[in-house]
Amino acid sequence: MDVSDLVIFEAVSRHGSMNRAASELNTVQSNVTARIRALEGELGVSLFQRHARGVSTTPSGQRILPLVARLTKLLADVRTAARDDGAPHGSLHLGSLETTTALRLSPLLTQFVKTYPEVRLAVTTGTTRRLLDDVINCRVEGAFVAGPVNHPDLHQETVFTEELVLVTSRQIRGLGALKDIADLKTIVFQAGCSYRQRLDSLLADMGAVTARPLEFGSLEAIISCVSAGIGITLLPKGIVGPAWQEGRIAVHELPHDEGHVDTLFVRRHDAFVSSALTAFLQMAKSRTGGLPHPSLEPAAAV
Fold first, then answer.
1. pLDDT at residue 295 in the model
2. Is the peptide bond before 148 cis (omega within 30 degrees of 0)?
3. Which one in 54, 212, 216, 292 has a CA-CA gap of 20 to 30 Å to 42?
4. Separation in Å, CA 221 to CA 73, 103, 127, 188, 279
5. pLDDT tens for residues 38-94?
6. Could you give the CA distance from residue 14 to residue 133 in angstroms, rounded to a whole number?
7. How far out from the chain centre does Cα 149 lie?
8. What distance in Å separates the CA atoms of residue 68 and residue 70, rounded to the nearest whole number?
9. What span, in angstroms and rounded, lies between the C-alpha atoms of 237 and 98?
10. Taking the model in full, what pTM does it have?
11. Long-range Cβ pairs for the range 239-245 (8 Å, 24+)
12. Which residue in 239, 290, 292 sits closest to 100, CA to CA?
């Protein structure tokens, strides 16, 4: 079996298109089509269902896709390990929660890029669910996610601990008022966000009835909607400090067990840990506790 055929298969599956996969791989569509047909012939199964919009991966293709990802990552690890002489260099692709990137990683990324200019660093943001999937399927070398995590293929370590707070408009004076609000809306990231799941659980325990959540793709959009009184959200305290200081929102602290969450760094057990990743994690750990939250004093009531 030709490994390059498996690389082509992965690209076609990811793009859902022979043409887009060919463009990524710097080849022509006819070559991609021929290689896929050869791979299907060798395996004795159809890997894609052809339709007018492109292709869809068949159940057979879905079953081998994780194995292909692991194989191609292993080959990449072989090349990286052979050239890794201890000096951080090459590419480093990580994943992170958007909140962690904004609150914790921004200064760290700046320092890392200045310290190790030979490393090509890329950071992809997403929900905990999506980031775990990216790590498991070898799309990133590791990711910062919200704990707890329990997966046999993943190594994990706690890097940060965040205090979560309930964020509302200034008209809501306390948590007890939430259960009396008809049609209470939550303003959240897309499904798979661990903070969203915690918010749902918290409100259920309080007996608050919520409407269908409103999903947004950025922190600023979420905070702006909460400020306008459209709904409520759950976020790390350090993230909402500026908006609280400006008097745009109200912040409600939670009991310790409900209001604290570990941010974990996860990676595959079987993946090669490059010098670049080792240097990044050492720098992240050295800054743990050295990234204080902004002074969270609310603006005077108006």
1. 41
2. yes
3. 54
4. 36, 16, 16, 10, 34
5. 999 999 999 999 888 889 999 999 999 988 888 888 888 888 888 888 899 999 999
6. 14
7. 13
8. 5
9. 14
10. 0.78
11. 239/99, 239/102, 239/103, 240/165, 240/167, 241/293, 241/294, 241/295, 241/296, 242/294, 244/296, 244/298, 244/299, 245/294, 245/295, 245/296, 245/297, 245/298, 245/299
12. 239
User: What span, in angstroms and rounded, lies between the C-alpha atoms of 149 and 251?
Assistant: 27
In the block, residue with structure tokens 């303003």: 187
Structure tokens at 154: 């993943």
Q: Is the confidence at residue 177, as pLDDT, over 90? A: no
Do the beta carbons of residue 181 and residue 216 sit within 8 Å?
no
What is the SS3 assignment for 170? coil
Structure token digits, residue 56:
């869809």
- Tokens read off for 177: 């008022």
Mean pLDDT calculated for residue range 27-36: 94
* Cα(145)–Cα(197) distance, integer angstroms: 14
Model confidence band, residue 181 (pLDDT cutoffs 50, 70, 90) = confident
